[in-house]
Design brief:
about 240 residues, alpha/beta, six-stranded parallel sheet, 12 helices, 6 strands, about 15% strand
């Protein structure tokens, strides 16, 4: 429990096993990958908090959250990170009749992503992709969105709208789509496609990926990291990280 939000303290392989079972299920599931930024936004916005609470699996997608779970006596907790989830799930399903659909990002990124995945995982079944126009957070489902995804009949919809927008999107659409698994993976489309450089593994392990991304794109990410990381550290310094926001 961090700021009142529950995380399942899973090893990465255990999280993948759960998601594979969800993809074969006859009911809809959603997986939220929660970063420090997402968590702090959930402290500000009850809609975001509720979306994270409603997810079937809320993972710690950030080393500071993993370290806090360890402090609670949960040593099995590992980082369950969007790009790694996407790679591993595609690898595990490349020879299975599991259809993948990609929702989000730009047409160019989606084209690069699909080409890259088809090279890495021959046999992977990709049934569609769509780059929706950017609009404010939806409160009412879009019939065209429902039509596009239903027509593709995917088993897994990868949602790359950025967190926490993608978490609220999944909460809205999950009951209306006959899709076993929705997974919010943030910037994974950019990283896996190769269109955006990813932080070295040593920086990821030491909780410094935010710095690498900030240096790459300061104009877009300054508020996300400088403001919300500071809020997070302030809350930790006060010793209230196990209390509800």
């Amino acid at each position: 429990m961090i700021f009142g939000l529950s995380f399942l303290p899973l090893r990465f392989t255990a999280a993948i096993d759960r998601m594979l079972k969800m993809a074969h299920s006859d009911r809809a599931h959603s997986v939220s990958t929660c970063t420090v930024y997402t968590l702090m936004r959930a402290c500000e916005d009850v809609t975001i908090r509720q979306a994270l609470q409603d997810a079937d699996l809320c993972t710690a997608d950030g080393m500071p959250l993993v370290w806090l779970l360890h402090q609670q006596g949960l040593p099995d907790a590992e980082r369950v990170y969007g790009p790694d989830i996407l790679h591993e799930m595609c690898r595990c399903t490349a020879d299975l009749p599991i259809r993948h659909y990609f929702w989000g990002s730009t047409p160019e990124t989606l084209a690069s992503l699909i080409a890259r995945l088809q090279v890495l995982y021959p046999g992977l079944m990709i049934c569609g992709a769509h780059s929706p126009p950017f609009i404010p957070q939806e409160t009412v489902p879009n019939p065209e969105t429902l039509r596009l995804i239903r027509a593709a009949q995917p088993h897994i919809v990868w949602v790359g709208l950025g967190s926490p927008r993608q978490d609220v999107w999944m909460q809205l659409y999950r009951p209306l789509l006959d899709v076993p698994l929705l997974v919010g993976v943030g910037a994974a489309f950019d990283f896996v496609s190769g269109r955006t450089r990813q932080a070295p593994r040593w920086m990821q392990r030491h909780g410094l990926e935010w710095l690498f991304r900030l240096i790459q794109n300061p104009r877009q990410l300054a508020r996300r990291y400088l403001v919300y990381n500071t809020k997070f550290l302030w809350r930790l310094a006060q010793g209230h990280w196990q209390d509800r926001c």
